[in-house]
Amino acid sequence: MPVSLPGMLLLIGLATAAASIVTVVLMLKNPPLNLARLCAILVPVFVSSAAVAYCCGWFAVALGGPFPAQCEDRNTSGAELVSMVQEYWPLRSACFYLDGAVVEHIPMSLNVLVCLSAGLAVVLACAGAVLHRRTPSAT
Question: What are the C-alpha distances in Å from 71 to residues 55, 60, 104, 121?
């Protein structure tokens, strides 16, 4: 993946999150509060938060961030490091040693943040749809 695509996604995610948060604040200041619309506005906040967290992790991997430093030159049995493989989703690095041992490093905090934000977006979208169907229309 070229670096420009995650960079654009990062900027779009930040702008979307900021605009959505401003919209939520304005909605809270001007009653009456429609819960279906509030859920609909909170969905982009969590989707863009997931995208921003993933892009930050992607840049950490692509730019040689914290993962390469986690591979030791020799493992506990004394075998030499043969190669390192980095994957971008889920963000992980694997250290391959001469004796066949593999040590994987997965940044759980980043994966949990991405998956939790995306999951909250799905839950809010479903809750907003249910709330929208339950409210009587004003026609």
Answer: 23, 15, 9, 35
